[in-house]
Amino acid sequence: MQIESSAVDAIQEATEKVVVDELHMANLAANSAQRAAVQKEDMEFVRQMRQMILGFRFPGQE
């Protein structure tokens, strides 16, 4: 299988954006709960909200 470097760059950029956005939203959830650190429950909350709003889950999520 051959993949062009520009395709790999695009995949990496998209992946980084998803991760940064996910952590940003989890940080907002932690701040809302008056905590300085993100906890697992913040990540779970963000995933639940995304599923409710967008109607899908990322692969590998229960």
UniProtKB/TrEMBL annotation:
Query: Pfam families given for it?
Result: Histone
Q: Which GO terms describe its molecular function?
A: DNA binding; protein heterodimerization activity
Boundaries of every Core Histone H2A/H2B/H3 domain copy:
2-48
Query: Which residues does UniProt assign to the signal peptide?
Result: none
Tell me what this protein is called: Core Histone H2A/H2B/H3 domain-containing protein
